[in-house]
Amino acid sequence: MRRMRSFGPGSIRTDAVPSGSVELPDGGRLAFDVEGDGPDVVLLHPGLWDRRTWDRQMTTFPAAGFRVTRYDARGYGDSTRPDARPYSHVHDLAALIDALGISLAALVGCSMGGSIGIDFTLEHPERVWALVPVAAGLGGFELLEQEEDWWAAATAPVDEALEAGDLERAEDARLAIWAPLGAHDPAGARIRELAFENIHELTMDESAHEDLDPPAAARLGEIDVPTLVVEA
């Protein structure tokens, strides 16, 4: 693991720091990278992977005149894992941008990261200048009955592998759901590599996570910032 600079709660940075970690109020740490100069963009990774999901964007956004920050959510990559203490991805993101001196940011999030971005925008609309949810999860959204049947069938191989204690088979089963093109794409090996480096997430206890209340599904009309929704 590369050496990273760290900042404690309440420390404010106004200069760009290439990489480091931020200490959270409860003692956890979030690893991050910053590149470029200009309006702030924060990248929020999906649940199977970590901040390296955004490798290409770490050059694309700075070249377009933005300062871009990516980080590992709690439990992923170089960040610390959750414990029994209550925590929130929204609170973690607020602590990160406070420590980095970011007062206003565009949030670009994929899947889990999109959900975090939506929730953060609902809680802190004054700190978001644009929102881009990509195939985002949505707290409080209920599947239709036929969708529940499909989901149960799709995730059955994952559940069976977990019950057997076979994490590698479970991860491959998840990738078949969330990244089926990876097996046939030149980037497929990298997709699988990053997923397996975060394989512990399959058994991570997230019971202490505090969800947004009321959830986002019933509150989307409150979002009043420029928003680009990406689905595929």
Q: What spatial form do the alpha-carbon principal axes imply?
A: globular
Question: SSE order in H/E notation?
Answer: EEEEHEHEHEHHH
CATH topology of the largest domain: Rossmann fold
Q: Which strands sit side by side, in order, in the main sheet? A: 1-2-3-5-4-6-7
* CATH second-level architecture of the largest domain: 3-Layer(aba) Sandwich
Characterize the main sheet: 7 strands, mixed
Could you give me the name of the CATH homologous superfamily of the largest domain? Alpha/Beta hydrolase fold, catalytic domain
Please state roughly what percent of the residues sit in beta strands, choosing from under 5%, 5-15%, 15-25%, 25-35%, 35-45% or over 45%: 15-25%
Please, what is the average pLDDT? Answer: 87
The tally of structural domains comes to 2
Q: CATH first level of the largest domain: which class? A: Alpha Beta
Describe the structure concisely for a colleague.
Helices cover 31% and strands 16% of the residues. The protein is an alpha/beta fold.
Characterize the structure shown.
This protein is α/β, with parallel strands linked by helices. The chain folds into two domains: 5-141 and 205-222, Alpha/Beta hydrolase fold, catalytic domain (Rossmann fold); 145-203, no CATH class. 31% of the residues lie in helices and 16% in strands. It is built from six helices and seven strands, in the order ββββαβαβαβααα. A seven-stranded mixed beta sheet has the order 1-2-3-5-4-6-7, sandwiched between helices. Strand 2 (19-23) and strand 3 (29-35) form a beta hairpin. Helix 4 (145-163) packs antiparallel against helix 5 (167-178). The protein starts with a strand and ends in a 35-residue tail after the last helix.
